[in-house]
Amino acid sequence: MMMEAPAREPVNFAGLLKDAVLAAAIAFGLFSLLLGLKTDQTLNNQMVLVPRPGLLATVVGLVFVGRFLIGYWQAINAGKIKKRKAAATPLALKIEKYGTAAFVGFLFVYPMMVLGTAGPSGAIKWIDNFGIQILIYIMLGWGLNIVVGLAGLLDLGYVAFYAVGAYSYALLATSEPVKEFMAGLVGPTFWPLWAFWICLPVAGILAAFWGVLLGFPVLRLRGDYLAIVTLAFGEIIRLVLINWVEFSGGYAGISSIPRPSFFGVPFNATESGFAATFGLEFTPIYRTIFLFYVILVLALITAVVSTRLRRLPVGRAWEALREDEIACRSLGINTVNTKLTAFAIGAMFGGFAGAFFAARQGFISPESFVFLESAQILAIVVLGGMGSLLGVVIASIMLVGGVELLRELDFLKAYFGDNFDPAQYRMLIFGACMVLMMLWKPRGLISVREPSVFLKEKKAVSSDLVKEGHG
Amino acid sequence: MDDPPAPARSPRAPAPAERRILMRALSDPILKVQNLTMRFGGLVAVNDLTFTAGRGDITALIGPNGAGKTTVFNCITGFYKPTTGRMALRHGTIDIDAHVERLTDTPNDHLTSADGSLYLLERMPDFHVSARAKVARTFQNIRLFSGMTVLENLMVAQHNPLMVASNWTIGGLLGFAGFRKREKAAIESAKYWLEKTKLIDRADDPAGDLPYGDQRRLEIARAMCTEPVLLCLDEPAAGLNPRESLELNALLRSIRDDHGTSLLLIEHDMSVVMEISDHVVVLDYGTKISDGTPDQVKSDPKVIAAYLGAEDEAEVEKIEAEVGL
């Protein structure tokens, strides 16, 4: 057979029609009673059957057309030879390289852009709800990416480290003994102003410590078992926070957490506040912009560190662990330590993000650290493509920004009535997106792997070859 | 201590060269396996196995399917903890017999003297066997990091020295020059092995994309990147065509001659075993049935019986007559 020009077979319309008619007939059979008839009540409280031929015809018609189109699409694609993915991949690496630089540049001017277009009062929503919110998830995604994407350990309880970071900061910053001790040491105004900057590394270290603590018992577990234990760990942390009321305030949470200062200059309307110091008119937007840059820098640190780690022996060992643990051990790699470092470093970034979250909100409660958060972060990593930093960014914008955007769709009320709230449909859309992604790109949006070292030419590794790990 | 070569029924005086080689296992051993037994529940996979591998030798472990060869490998490389037995490996010229009892009485897994070090492999976790005792291995079913490039595979093999050079990640993260220099050296070493295994052109391709024969050679290159004193190869010629088999023989010889690495190999392909090994140990049902030079083993009736399944002497004689011995 000649390979170069595969003759496209003529589309078999008769067959397609037959198929579509069959599908329509099945749909008619299924829906004739389900949709075609509706029981209703008359004014005399009698039950009557209301036939709905229009609805039934629409549904059957949709099935007919849909089946026909799917069949046609399959028929015209059947002749095409599937292109090898690996051949076209350097493009993806290029996109990742230049796309990243352009995106970081955009992020730095983003608050100014929004401020210019929407004005100080309108900009808060765009910087806070979109900018900061998405960046927190990007950072969490990058942190979890170390554990799941690189080391291949499925962690369903990542939100626990986020909670540890948030509570570390909240408890330390609001603790009276610490405040008094610091007041005795360096003066009374010091601690509220500097608490965030001192507690940020502490929160990271504490989260890393809890990462190691979780790591020890789960080292021997794989796959489903690992996932379940990490899930349980996340729930344990949340339940302890709820039930140990003296320690964490229980459901009430912790409020009036000090906000971060501009390196000692508070964001308030006083004489010594940020606006007065820099001769600006006071508006709350400065704090929001500052918080935006703080999380941007934190997220960039996460990205730079995890990119560098990938090229270091420890990062290569993580990826090797994901590929084949037994081979790792035969090469003298201490897999226990390697897994623990992955857990610890991933948790540390979760802790940083948590401390930032507490400082930004000013109030935290266990409600913020439910399993759904873990699932969302994991969804971001999986959707983005395991191991890809840019993929995580795209997925965060899609998932977090998408939900926020739903809130903006108020005009839909004109069509669906005043009771329609598009944000209520976010889980449905979220689920549909996941299903579509798994069908279309099961390994995530950016599914090629970039080699950490190369001799002559950097070639992307096709996702077909990269393993998901045993976790 | 070491069993004498099993007496051949048609005694044939070993050629002087052969005798010298067999003496090496006795006079300059690198690994002494003593009374190794491995039980899995009621199944005795390896039964009281004692043998010695000489330094600079290619020692072949052969036997029919299920004879326990891979189990022996897994014990030596620390993947299994043997039920009983001792496996002593030495670096340098330290006298194994003089020190091994003393070491066994201590809780330590190694002993260092002026002449070198002695390791008790059965006491070490698997990654220590590779990292400290310098015993590398390959696997019967190839275990490469298929999603990583060929070069990356070889870099992972140099994990431990690179880890030290990167100050356990901190120096590497800060970009210290010492780490970059060491990494360059690691790439050079990887390049050397890629050239040696004729894989240099595929250095940047994912390992999972290589053809089977190349994957086998890459696994050997990866094991050699850990700079082992003893390389354990589990069926390196399985699935290779005759030309690739010949190339493999040359590669293994060069590893032995140019790098001073001793080899221990499991192999079914007799053309490889008889061609390159200096010393052959035959297992059957977990028990050693023969030990000697390839020629001695080849003519050992017990070996022939084990391989051909003959049970009584008369039948063995008949088969021998048929194969022309």
Short description:
In chain A, 67% of the residues lie in helices and 2% in strands. Chain A is built from 17 helices and 2 strands.
Question: How do the strands of the widest beta sheet of chain B line up side by side?
Answer: 7-8-9-3-10-11
Total of DSSP H or I helical runs spanning 4+ residues of chain A: 17
Please estimate the helix content of chain B.
Answer: 40-55%
Overall shape of chain B? globular
Order of helices and strands of chain A: HEEHHHHHHHHHHHHHHHH
Largest interface chains and counts: A-B, 40 and 46 residues
Oligomer: heterodimer
Structural class designation of chain B: alpha/beta
What does this entry look like structurally?
The complex is a heterodimer of chains A (471) and B (325). Chain A has 471 residues and is mostly helical. Chain A is 67% helix and 2% strand. Chain A has 2 domains: 13-69; 97-411 and 432-440, no CATH class. Chain A contains 17 helices and 2 strands. In chain A, helix 1 packs antiparallel against helix 2 (53-78), helix 4 (159-174) packs across helix 13 and helix 10 packs across helix 11 (313-323). Chain B has helices at 16-27, 69-76, 96-105, 126-131, 150-157, 159-165, 170-173, 177-196, 212-224, 242-259, 270-276, 294-298, 301-308, 313-323; strands spanning 29-40, 43-54, 58-62, 84-92, 110-113, 116-120, 135-137, 230-234, 262-266, 279-284, 287-292. In chain B, strand 1 and strand 2 form a beta hairpin. Chain B has 2 domains: 1-134 and 228-325, P-loop containing nucleotide triphosphate hydrolases (Rossmann fold), CATH 3.40.50; 144-227, no CATH class. Chain B has a 6-stranded mixed β-sheet with strand order 7-8-9-3-10-11, with helices on both faces. Chain B has a 5-stranded antiparallel β-sheet with strand order 2-1-4-6-5, sandwiched between helices. Mean pLDDT of chain B is 86; it is low at 1-14. Chain A binds chain B through residues 86, 305, 308-309, 312-314, 316-317, 319-320, 322-324, 326-335, 341, 449, 451-459, 461-462, 465-467, and chain B through 77, 79, 126-128, 130-132, 136-137, 139, 143-149, 151-152, 155-160, 162-163, 166, 168-169, 172-173, 187, 191, 200, 203-209, 222-223, 226.
